Protein 1
Amino acid sequence: MTEQQIYVKAIECDPNYLDSYNSLAATLSRGESITLNSGQVLTKQQLYLESLRLNDKQTFIYRRIGLTLLNNKQTITLPDGQQMSRRQLLQKEENRGRGNRFINKLTYRMDDPSII
């Protein structure tokens, strides 16, 4: 079995596991598509959109979708109906990531007894 076949089988076994879609997308080149065992044909971009549909809290997916767009003028419709450009997707990932880094730093500092 190839790496792609393993991810396709994983999607067949659990179609709600977003990591399988992300991993499969990472094996594809821009414009390349793959046929799932269900017969559905998906591109790299469509696989990332499916990941986002499954969990829109994963900030890295916004970046990956943004990088599938050719330029900042091109837009894409997300599963929630929102249209975004490459720049907006990259900013969304960056903004959400910044908030997560702040929370992680705050949590780390709260564990430090010398602060209290």
Note: Helices lie at 3-13, 18-26, 44-54, 59-68, 86-110.
Protein 2
Amino acid sequence: MGTRTLPNLRSPLSSPTPPASSPLRNHRWRISPFPSSTRPSRPVRPIECAVRFRPCIDIHKGKVKQIVGSTLRDSTDDASLITNFESDKSPAEFASLYKQDGLTGGHVIMLGADAASQSAARQALRAYPGGLQVGGGINWENAMSYLEEGASHVIVTSYVFSDGQMDLERLKHLVHMIGKQRLILDLSCRKKVTYESYIWNIILNGKYAIVTDRWQKFSDMFLDEQTLEFLATYADEFLVHGVDVEGKRLGIDEELVALLGCHSLVCDTSSVHHVIIMFSIFIVGLCLENKTVCSLRSHQMH
């Protein structure tokens, strides 16, 4: 995938251009900003949106799976793991399919540090050189090797956090080593309720906090305009999972999508299981540019 520089967060949203071979190239929606009953008297320019589908290959113990991400643990005990789907196709087969269909910008995520998952991820990258991003256990020691195997970008989260705080020196070192244009920051987040006590009442203020270490640990960094503007200087893209709904077949986190749509062009990967839900993203997310399809991708092979 050709690298894409994060746009100015206050610039007008731009529409991505799918590859010429993609059947989605000419799929565009024109959305009137007002319902017919409340349409203003003077002409209003319609909002024009486009969507680019980004495929996803989740690898767990060498197999392609769609799981509830929040059930992952660091231990080898899989008793708590909830698996929605497991494919008999290899990651490399999925990668070849996405290459054939001209789908770029997808990602390969290793849901474990085991050798089988690492080997399967590298095989997928070789099957579609330049067409896939890779994440899961990426650090300064192995980032370059995955790029050399064919990854267009590496996706990083936990490595640039330490004890709940962002390690800016690690982030800068990684950017210096591989370049901002090859780095994606995973800003997956969960709602964190903070209690602000006053004399007579308690206000519950739910904010989205970035989570690390298999989404089990809250960081002290919240996903907001200030965070997005700051991190945009270090990354080519952001990848955001709505952890509270991801993999649970609960649709999208509309509040999160609206937040992202207001402040940045990002790739949000809350679970998508119906085209109607996809359409709601354009309205709630104000033409959010990229939507990664994880729950759909395994079933399309059959």
Note: The CA atoms of residues 33 and 46 lie 6 Å apart.
Protein 3
Amino acid sequence: MRKLEFTQTHQNYFGTLCQARRVARFGGMLSVLSLLLLMAFSNRARAQCALACNDQVNISLPGTADDCELEVTVDMVLEDPTSCNLPMEVQLFDLQGFPLPGSPFVNETHIGKSYIFSVTEIQSGNNCWGTILVEDKLGPDMFNCGNVTVPCLVDYLPTTDGGDIPAPDIDDCSNILSISYEDNITLGNCNTTYVAIVDRDWTAIDQLGNTSTCTQHIFVERVSLADYTPVCPANVIIECDGGNPDTSPDSTGYPTIEIDSVVYNVVPGANNFCEIAASYSDEVFDLCGGGQKILRTWTIYDWCLPTNPQNGNPFTCIQVIKIEDTTPPAITCPAPIVYPTSAVNCLATLDLPAATVTDDCSGISVKVLTPFGL
């Protein structure tokens, strides 16, 4: 059996021509021919790997600021990515031809701008190019917009407006331009589980005009004096502050009701949904020294229960608010003064300036003591 041994001499369309040198054995000839066919088809595949790039490709980023980055891939910009299965690379450049930092990734800083892209087949160096426009077409991402169940003692306005209901979290590649909401309220009655159901429709708009919406359902539960007993606010002592101490309930306290280990204030007129009404009246007694004692009577009434004070409807309690003046007057003495005496009898007639005396709350009396008496 003869063997053919091949030595490469020069290149042609298929890659190599081989000069055969006859040897004694022929057993490896089939293997060599197979190798030649493989090389020929491989080179032909490379020669037929034509690249056609799309032009003016719009690249839209994800909608969240936490994930506002996108890789520009071959599939996005090549007209037929399946026409060539060899390794390829995407590179980005600005319109002046300078490489784009972070290429081939784009993010929110590239929104609204055009760039040049190049797709290169790494093995042959063949390439094509086009342009992309980076866009943000998605509305803001709104989450934590779920249902909320709260007692009617809370302020049902969102936290963004000073209330107690959490507002949804909002994220976006572009800056948020506005956030608004609209409520659709269904009122209950004394026989329903909920005194109100609030369907709150939220709308968020980013600076590009992209809009997203979500609906938050707020279930407002009834609070009944049949189930809960209010606690009267504690007695307080207030220092007389400039003769105008703050005795409002915001300063001195409201009655409270504890529900599921959470303490809620019972505030007059805070929530029109509640069938519980709260009010108070004050009796004021003057004390010596500019002080006062206020007897504040709180009344809490449940409109859904029969009026029966023995059964706690209405609930009443008295809070004692005492105003005291424990700060002494402030005295500012005049500066030392030197008066000349008469050369005849070493005496002088003089007027002593009065000290400056102030007090926040009480009336004051001033006595001037000298070595010669008052």
Note: The radius of gyration is 44 Å.
Protein 4
Amino acid sequence: MKLRHRLELGAVGLVLAVGVAWVALTALSVRREFGRETDLRAMTVARHLAREVADPVLTENRFRLGMLLSEAREKEPGVRYAYVERDGAVLAHTFEAGVPEALRSVAPSAGTRRLRTPEGEVVHAAQPVLDGLAVVHVGLDAAPLGAAARALTLQTVGLAGLVVLGAGLLAVFLVARVMRPLEGLTAVAEAVTAGDWSRRPEARGTGEVARLADAFGRMLDRLEESHRRLEDANVELEREIEAHRQAEERNRVLQEQLLRAQRLEAVGQLAGGIAHEFNNLLAAMLSAAELAIRRLGSDHPEARRLQTIVEAAERGGALTRRLLAFSQRQVLVKRRLDPNRLLEETAALLAPTLGEAVRLEVRAEGRVPLVRADPEQIRQVLVSLATNARDAMAPGGGRLLFATRRVEAEGREWAEIEVTDEGKGIPPGDLDRIFDPFFTTKEVGKGTGLGLAAAYGIVQQHGGDLRVESALGKGTTFRILLPGA
């Protein structure tokens, strides 16, 4: 139940209780007052009659006593009976059949007493005559005065009912007048709780409730300001947390890149030294085999075995060149070149070798900056990436995309060359090792694990970067970043 209804019921109940108590006390007071009035009138009649019957009592004139009693009964309204008693004997009375013994047994010798008779309630008054020589008894009907008392009580009840009704309505009005602003404050508080800070209570008048509404409004203003500052602080804190998270992520990536670079550098130095020495050995073997073939002639039976040695030495030389490319020990012949033109020329050379299942698509952006690079080395990188893409899409094939775009990073322009396939993708666990030398996801005998390592070394030697993105079942994207010339 709402507070307003409880206050209204409480006020009405209080007014009703006060009204009932007032009516009860008034009725009791009226009854007592009318009782005293009845007793006083009965005694007045008895005293008056005692004076009148004094002489007849002395002379024992019963006839005169009877006349006086009859006159008193007829003249005094409400007198139901009267009799004179002396020494226990009735001298005169107004009863038709004599004084009832039951009445004489309960009648007082002096004063008043209320008695119940078959005809109704009477006030019996007894007044001694001549210092107790005799006693005058008068019975006064109490019904008229009781009816008057009841009528007055009913009037009082009616008046009290009107007063209670008026007071109840006034109480309800006052409660409503007091509760209306409080309900307004409650509505404003609920709106603010729901997030609506635009609501403010209406402060009408100059009373306590108006001052309360005004103070409540000022409090809401301060709370709104504090809430706004808190939200701003939360936004700033979230921004700082996000910046810190991004910084930690960048540091983690940089640390991983540094570790990978250190690992690749160590492997590259080792591979470069081995490749250099191995290349010298292969060069000597190749020269000796070619010289022997020229001396023996190409038709000599041993020339065929020597030719096998030449071919093996050439394959070994290609392998050493890849190792040298990975270790960044190759001599680059750099010149200014257009990445778009290089991409189109390479695509034209690659298209016939990729097979009919591979759809080669070229998208060249017009604002790509020129770069300083060795075109043959960059072309070798593109060929290596395209070959891997073809193998990843086998046997079903798919689209192979070559694209270029201009990129701004670290305060300078970069040319980005993108190679995207629709192959099976690279497992997430292999992405961190994809550029490691001798690491391959191909079957044994189908890959040396040096293609991507050599491509990474070539791009790094140009001052750029080679990045990879892949999703299983969707394909792989390699991005070659070269600094603008």
Note: The radius of gyration is 64 Å.
